[in-house]
Amino acid sequence: MTSAPSSEAFAAAAAGVIAMARYAGDRHWVPATSGNFSVRIDERFAAVTATGADKANLTEADVIAAEISGPKHPRASAEAPLHLVRYASDPSIGAIAHIHTLPATLLSRRHAAKGALRLDGWELLKAFTGIKTHETALDIPIVPNDQDTDRLAALIEERLGASGPVPGYLIAGHGLYVWGASAKDAIRHMEAFDFLLTAELHEENAR
Ligand SMILES: CSCCC(=O)C(=O)COP(=O)(O)O
Ligand SMILES: [Zn+2]
């Protein structure tokens, strides 16, 4: 028997979702209603954005309590399976953000055939939880896009299981998924990815 989260627990998680979405919206990272955001409420539920909502101007009415291992909520993001499987796989994850930044989308296509994008030697890698030195090489997985998001979620978990620990992944021609222990950590990780992928794109284009 699954009991719904309390209204206080839902409101606290929804506030984190709105903070991430507005942060991304203010930076034009979620154009044309793209992107989706979630915060874990407890071991059974996560607060997830509604499909089609304007993430840049999100309100609590656009946030849904979705069961992590339950049936699909009819109003939840089309990409909710990609969030929910992450919570089920990794108990340390407290918040997840999906954004459509230009550098992430461009690099995800350019490097799709290799299946990963290496981020190597940048000082800002230390913005990711657990990384202590710029002398780090992170291979960010890239998976092919798929409109079947249950199948896509399964493929992503398989790829993440075979890779070292990473704070996110790319979907080819689509965008970036990133997570953290809290909404605050996920925001820092979004910002770090945006800087690192922009730097990578500039460096590659100058070669
Ligand atoms: C108009 S963006 C296409 C769908 C997408 O990639 C996205 O991130 C938003 O989907 P949602 O169902 O979460 O609104
Ligand atoms: Zn998307």
Automatic annotation (TrEMBL):
Binding site for Zn(2+): 98, 100
Keyword Metal-binding among UniProt keywords: yes
Note on how the cofactor is bound: Binds 1 zinc ion per subunit.
Cofactor field: Zn(2+)
Pfam families: Aldolase_II (PF00596)
Protein EC: 4.2.1.109
Catalytic activity: 5-(methylsulfanyl)-D-ribulose 1-phosphate = 5-methylsulfanyl-2,3-dioxopentyl phosphate + H2O
Physiological role: Catalyzes the dehydration of methylthioribulose-1-phosphate (MTRu-1-P) into 2,3-diketo-5-methylthiopentyl-1-phosphate (DK-MTP-1-P).
Protein name according to UniProt: Methylthioribulose-1-phosphate dehydratase
Protein species of origin: Parvibaculum sedimenti
Name of the coding gene: mtnB
